[in-house]
Amino acid sequence: MPQDHFQVAVVLERRKLKGAWGGDQWLPRAALPAEPATPSDTPLANDDELEICHGGCCEVALHSAETAHYRDNLASGKPSLWVALEATPAGNCRISSITADPYEGEALAGALDLIVEPVPMPPEIVARIAAFVAAFHVDRAFIKRQRDDVHANAASPPRPRAAQGGERR
Predict the structure, then answer these.
(1) Closest listed residue to residue 64, CA positions, set 134, 11, 1, 154
(2) Which domain covers residue 9, as residue numbers?
(3) Rounded to two decimals, what is the model's pTM?
(4) To the nearest whole percent, how much of the chain has pLDDT over 90?
(5) What CA–CA distance (Å, rounded) separates 82 from 146?
(6) H helix intervals, 6-142
């Protein structure tokens, strides 16, 4: 099964929360198509309440079986990458995963221990995913299965069907 793997760098935003519980709120802010020269955790902008930093890189994997999902993402008018962040014991966060599949991103958002947010997809990544979809997408026909004539709440097992052209009892 054809696959493509590439690295994406993530820019993170850290806000200091106000209130009795305090703490920090981490959110992915942007994706970069190539790893910057700065090491991860390097501050890019900083003030009293907000810090923007390079959060590191993570691999994006494209699978040929999911090209319909990537195509849906590209056709949405606002292609996105879903970035999942995981809290560390030190109070920071790390990038857990990045996906271009909107349905996988939605599934990740259900995890209670992850922060999952979509970020805009850079044009270079849009072009790469579009080329992958063009190369490997295969339309699959929807085949509706036949249902049995059995009533779902029947107390007895179904009777066997009579043979074609034969009599019914």
Answers:
(1) 1
(2) 3-136
(3) 0.80
(4) 60
(5) 37
(6) 67-75, 102-108, 123-136
Q: Is residue 120 part of a domain?
A: yes
Q: Mean of the pLDDT values across residues 66-82?
A: 96
Query: Which residue, among 131, 75, 69, has the nearest Cα to 100 in the 3D structure?
Result: 69
Backbone dihedral angles phi then psi of residue 47, each to the nearest 5 degrees: -145, -170
Residue 55, in any domain of the structure: yes
How many other C-beta atoms lie within 10 A of the C-beta of residue 110? Answer: 8
CB 60 within 8 A of CB 98: yes
Q: Is residue 162 part of a domain?
A: no
Q: How many domains does the chain have?
A: 1
pLDDT digits (tens, 9 = 90+) for 138-164: 888 888 888 776 666 666 666 666 666
Residue 142 resides in a domain = no
Tell me the per-residue pLDDT of 13-64, one tens digit each, with 9 for 90 and over: 999 888 887 788 899 999 999 888 888 888 888 887 889 999 999 999 999 9
The DSSP-derived string for 34-49 is S--SSPTT-EEEE-SS
**Residue listed under structure tokens 């850290």:** 14
